[in-house]
């Protein structure tokens, strides 16, 4: 099936990011194909850990899982190429304090801007959902504005050793990477789901016959992901963000 213009643009961005990544890291050709949507044998392997249901790509043709491990401190590409830094209300409280602001309003005025973007990753192919999110974003460079939204920039909080100057108060979205998460209503209860962001900016993906190696990571991230997703919901309820959901 032919790709729409938007889908083609997205694939080109991922391809460009992977080419850039390949200058420093060896990217397995199969991992590259998964990123570019070229594998037709990908199945959605789900596993529930604590309160999070993970969706892990499984390549049925070769019986391989796509897994991930972080290569920091050898890598800090996500901070060099972060597309946006949406803030939860908890992030706003913590980061405004860390940056020495006496009031949230002056922090918001000087350090953030409002951005809107579509997130179509929460889909189940039988019932696709497009969510449009509007949130306050932390500026990755002092002069950042909505024209930079979604474009990779080196974050100003990355120091010369590859560490984050805001850590441990960095935005929740930075703790989450390279996962993305969403919540669903299941039998009137909130259920939290997560999968990988395959933007081509992270060299930590690899293939494995077994899930064993990633299990400690999934256990550790289940708390981070659950708290972050609930914080986003709280942020929207408190009026610091907005979400529009459209079913097709
Ligand atoms: S880009 Fe990936 S491997 Fe590198 S620091 Fe970020 S999460 Fe870790
Ligand atoms: S805030 Fe910190 S962790 Fe997040 S992108 Fe910037 S340097 Fe990286």
From TrEMBL:
<protein>
    <recommendedName>
        <fullName>YkgJ family cysteine cluster protein</fullName>
    </recommendedName>
</protein>
<dbReference type="Pfam" id="PF03692">
    <property type="entry name" value="CxxCxxCC"/>
</dbReference>
<dbReference type="InterPro" id="IPR005358">
    <property type="entry name" value="Puta_zinc/iron-chelating_dom"/>
</dbReference>
